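At this stage, I wrote out one protein's amino acid sequence and its backbone structure tokens, and that material follows here:
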Amino acid sequence: MIRKIPAFTVIALMASVLLGQQKTVTITGNLIDNACAESAKDLDTRARSHPTSCALMEKCQSSGYAVYADHKLYKLDDKGNDSAVNLLKNTKTAKGVKVTVEGTVDGDTIHVTKLTEVTDAAN
């Protein structure tokens, strides 16, 4: 039993190191609420033309948000959802809000460290 404890400790430490080394990614795409993303037949077109006013509706806002980039949907974590609401309330963009998200990806969710709007002036 004593020999198993050090081996278990080493394995646990290695796992925690690997988890701590998640690579930070930067993704640029269109912001869309999860409710509208789930019901979209053509997600690419829907995300590029999604009205900001729709994304701020109570049902849409409560569903959370995602970023559609490179034909993949990345759901935002709680911090990202809060940032998305704030961005949507303050943007001048009427539809197709484009954002850059920095964070770590876990499955289909991005754990957001930074979310900023991409404007035409920034392109």
Observations:
- The first strand starts at residue 24 and ends at 33.
